[in-house]
Amino acid sequence: MRVGWKRRAAHCDRAVWSSGRDVLFRASARLWVVAVNGRDTDLAGKKPLRPAQPPRRNGDADPYRQTWAGMMAHLRKHYNGMCRQWFDELEPLGIAAGAIEVRSATVLHRDYLRKTCADAFNDAARTVSGRLLSVKFLGPGDEAASAHESMAMLAPAAPAPAPAKPRPVEVAPPLPAEPAKIARSDDDGLSSPRPERSIPAEPIPLRKSAVTIHDTPNKYETLVVNPDYCFENFVVGHNNRLAHAAAQAVASNPGRAYNPFFVHGGVGLGKTHLLQAVCLRIVEANPNAVLYYTSCEGFVTQFLECVQSGEMAQFRHRFRDVDVLIIDDIHFLTKRDRSQEEFFHTFNSLFQAQKQIILSSDAAPEDIPDLEERLVSRFKWGLVAKIEQPDYETRIEILKTKARLRGMMMPDDVAKFVAERIESNIRELEGAIVKIQLLASVNQQPLSIELAKQAIGERVTLPAGEPTIQSIISVVTEFYGIRLADLQSKHRQRSIALPRHVCMFMARKCTRLSLEEIGGFFGGRDHTTVMHAVKTVEEKLREDPEFPPIIAMLEEKARAR
Hints:
- The chain has 561 residues and is an alpha/beta fold.
- It has five domains: 1-55, no CATH class; 63-154, DnaA, N-terminal domain (GMP Synthetase, Chain A, domain 3); 231-387, 3-Layer(aba) Sandwich (Rossmann fold); 392-456, Helicase, Ruva Protein, domain 3 (Orthogonal Bundle); 469-560, DnaA protein, C-terminal DNA-binding domain (Chromosomal Replication Initiator Protein Dnaa, Chain: A), CATH 1.10.1750.
- It has 20 helices and ten strands.
- It has helices at 63-78, 107-116, 118-129, 185-188, 241-252, 271-285, 296-309, 312-320, 337-352, 373-379, 392-405, 412-421, 426-443, 449-456, 469-480, 484-488, 494-510, 515-520, 527-543, 547-560, and strands spanning 3-9, 31-36, 91-96, 99-103, 134-138, 261-265, 291-295, 324-328, 356-361, 383-387.
- The strands form three sheets. The protein has a five-stranded parallel beta sheet, with helices on both faces. Strands 3-4-5 form a three-stranded mixed beta sheet. It has a two-stranded antiparallel ribbon with strand order 1-2.
- β3 and β4 (99-103) form a beta hairpin.
- α11 (392-405) crosses α12 (412-421), α13 (426-443) crosses α14 (449-456) and α15 (469-480) packs antiparallel against α17 (494-510).
- It starts with a strand and ends with a helix.
C-alpha cells in the first residue's frame, strides 16, 4: 500500500482525491483521511457521507440557545427601552419558510409583540444569523409549522484554523489510468466543491420584509393591550385606592359588579393602566371572552366611515356583540351629536344584555362640556371613581416598579431624588426612567444620583421673572375690563371668551402649571378646553398682525408684578 497524500478537513465540505483511483467524499468532522492506491474495501460501493454537525464537546455552548441568546443581547443593546422581563419566557420553535417561529404565553402577549416589537426582532434575527429572516409570533393555540430547520444552523461558525506551513510529501507518479471524471449531481448525487459561505461581519440594516408573516390585520382592530399593565404592576396609594378596588371587582364579575365603570382623572395618572389590567384579568379567567378596546376617537372615526360606506350593520355588530366594551378618553365625544346618539343606543344595548361597559375620561361625567344629559345620567348608573395625583411615597414605589419592568434595580436614593422633582404625573416619571437608563447604558455607569441629575437636572427652579397665574389674570382682566367671575363663568360670548383664552394661553406659555391646573383656575375646565384656547390664540397671533403686540405687552406687565 502506498500513501498518495493526506489532508486535514475542518468543519467544511472539502473534496479529497487520491493519486490512484479517484474517490470523492465529504468530510464534516475533524478526520484524518488517507487515500490509497488501488481498491479500498471500506469505501467501495458506499455513497459519500452527508454533511453533519460537528460533535459538541462537554462545556461547549449549545448553538441553538447561543443563537437565541445573541438575539436577546442585540435587543437589549439596541432596543433597550422596548425590552421587558417576560421576553425570557418566549419559546423559539425553529425556522420554517424563512421565519423564526416564537411562541408566547398568551394571545395578548402575541398581539403586543406583533404590533410593537416585530421590526426590532426581525433586525435581531438578521443581524445574528446573517440571513434574511423574519420572526413570526405565535400564541398558545396557534399551529406551528410541521417541520422546522434547526436554529443551530444559524450559530456563528468557528474561525477556520490557520493554514499549516506546507511540507514536502512523497507523491507517487501517476499511473497510466484512464482520466478522472468528476461525477455531477445529475449522475450520482455528488456535486462539485463549492466555496464556503461566510457570515457578514457588519450587522444587516433594519428593513421590513416584503412577505407578510401574519394574517392581514383587521381594519378596525382594537388598541394594543400592554402585558405590563396588569394589576400586579399597579402601585396602589391613597390617590387611586377606590378606582383600583372597583376595577378588580369589575374584572372578577364583569357585567354585574359595577356597570358601567367610569374612571376619571388627570393626564398620566394610571387610567389606561387600570383599563388594560381589567382586560388582562378577564381574558386570563375566560380566554373565550369577546372584548373590544378602543379610544373614543376610534369609535367616532369608525362611525363616520361606516355611515359613508353604508356599513352600519357591521359597525353595530362590532360594538354591540361583545362581552366587554372598553372606551378610553370618552370626553372626546363632546360636540358630536350624531356620535353621541349612536353611542347612546350602543350603551343601552350592552347594558340591557348585562354586558360590561368601561369608560375613562379626564373629567367627571357632569364636567364634560356639551355632553347630552341622558348620557351623563347613564355614565353615573354604575360607579364613578376618580384618580388623584400620586403622593411622594407612591411616586417612589412607581419609579421602582417601572424600573424593575425594564430590567433595572433603582436604588432608594435615586428614586427619592426623582420623586422629589417630578410631581405631575406618572408618564413624566417613566420618561425620567428612560433617560436615566439610556445614560447608564451609554456611559456604562451604575444608577446613581449623579446620573439622575444629568437626566432630569440638578434641581427644579422657577425661571427668573416668571409670572404667577394670579398676576396674569389681574393684567388681562384690567386690560379687557372684565371681572374674574366672568372668566370662571360658563358664558361664551366673545367679550369674555377671548380674555379667557388669552389667560389660558399666557398661563401655558409663562408658567409651569399643567393643563388640568390651568383649567382649574377657570371654573374647573378640563385640559381639552385649555388646549383649544391655546390653539385659538396661536391662530389669532398668525392671522391678526395687531394681536402679537398686545400679548407681548400683557406678558411684560404680568412679569413685572
